[in-house]
Write a structure and sequence with these properties.
With 285 residues, this protein is an alpha/beta fold. Helices cover 44% and strands 21% of the residues. The strands form 3 sheets. Strands 4-3-5-12-6 form a 5-stranded mixed β-sheet, sandwiched between helices. A 5-stranded mixed β-sheet has the order 9-8-10-7-11, with helices on both faces. It is globular, with a radius of gyration of 22 Å.
Length: 285
């Protein structure tokens, strides 16, 4: 007998895979961790095959789970489109979003995928630039929405405070040099200012090895062993290691993340994407 597929169970399964752990998925689903675990067990029992491997700090897909994930996402997308065709007008148009590139990989994939599933006829234009470039673009109306750090014009609320951490190559010890070699973001960047302020307060001499507008430029210099850098914790690439007080480096201030919307950008599509991004920023760990 073909098992009945419960969409709630499918949604929980996909959310757990995207979040990486049951505990991280629970607040997104709106259930306790134990309730989410029971949902996954019910789904596995109905299918007669394990979908996830429960590891101490994460979950991994089994081969059957990896195959089933493709169908689960398709079914959820079809369900949302079916409901949308009846329950609400189909939103169309273009939304222009700006985000610093060091947050793009952390924030955008899941948030934009969920938005695209719910609003398949809305076109998205994504601009990855530093906050110093995104602020004037919002003010001039060249962007509808922008995620920025370190600047709060007109007392815009802070949606997230992200730790700023020191990083270095695991194969080099540039922090042993004096003055300290540092890879910095371009002038005006809040991460750059936080790094310089922390070193100044600690009385640590430093020399700038590079000044880059992009995360790739900074991490390339650090990976080569030429310098240390201060990066948002959520954007540290796997090839670098986090260092700190044990290496004689001072603590860094938190980065404040804000979501800005151009005053004239009030279309339903823009407002829906703003809601999705607000939820994503609030739920990230």
């Amino acid at each position: 007998m073909t098992p009945h597929l419960d969409l709630d169970l499918l949604r929980s399964f996909v959310t757990v895979v995207e979040a990486g752990t049951l505990s991280a998925a629970a607040p997104r689903i709106g259930r306790s961790q134990s309730a989410v675990s029971m949902q996954i067990q019910r789904l596995e029992q109905s299918l007669g095959a394990p979908l996830l491997l429960r590891l101490p700090r994460s979950v991994e897909l089994t081969p059957a789970g990896a195959d089933f994930l493709v169908y689960a996402r398709r079914l959820l997308k079809l369900s949302e489109e079916a409901v949308a065709s009846i329950s609400r007008p189909v939103e169309t148009g273009l939304v222009r979003l700006g985000v610093p590139d060091d947050y793009a990989a952390m924030l955008l994939p899941q948030a934009l995928a969920r938005f695209a599933e719910a609003h398949p006829r809305v076109a998205l234009e994504v601009v990855c630039e530093p906050s110093t470039h995104l602020l004037p673009a919002i003010g001039e109306g060249r962007l509808d929405l922008a995620i920025v750090t370190g600047t709060r014009p007109h007392r815009i609320e802070v949606l997230r405070r992200e730790p700023l951490v020191w990083v270095a190559s695991p194969h080099h010890v540039p922090w042993m040099e004096d003055p300290l070699p540092v890879a910095l973001f371009e002038p005006g960047c809040s991460a750059r200012m936080n790094v310089i302020d922390a070193l100044g307060a600690a009385g640590r001499a430093y020399r700038g090895v590079c000044s880059s507008a992009s995360l790739l430029g900074v991490t390339a210099v650090v990976e080569a062993g030429l310098a240390v850098a201060g990066l948002a914790a959520c954007s540290v690439p796997p090839q670098l290691k986090v260092i700190g007080e044990a290496e004689g480096l001072p603590p860094l201030a938190l980065l404040e993340m804000c979501l800005l919307r151009h005053p004239g950008a009030e279309t339903p599509a823009v407002l829906r994407l703003e809601e999705v991004l607000r939820r994503e920023l609030a739920s990230l760990r």
